[in-house]
Protein: WAT1-related protein
Organism: Lupinus luteus
Amino acid sequence: MAQRFGPFVVLVANECSNTALFTLFKAATTKGMSDHVFVAYAYAFATILLLPISFLYRRSRVVNPPLSFSILYKTAILGVIGCSSQMLGYAGIKYSSPTLSSAISNLVPVFTFILAIICRVAIVTH
């Protein structure tokens, strides 16, 4: 039963948490909080919440690759892209509403698929 409804529950919980975060951001910035401070608080909260989970549920049979410069470089690039996209998303919420942001965030898989087709990564069968 959990395997059948597990992904659905996780997706609904993710969408609810995103909507709550967007609403909290709009309320905080309306009261005068800076975008940058909110992003820093969000990252700090996520780190405090998620970092202990990674130590509790470590898989012993998976061998991690050695930490190389290439892995560190790619991680840094992903961090910069993720942080900048979050900052741009919050800038959009500042000028519109959290409802619009939640609706637009549902279109991310569509844009990803279109980019995959443009970059010839996705295979489309007729």
Remarks:
- The chain has one domain: 2-59+73-118.
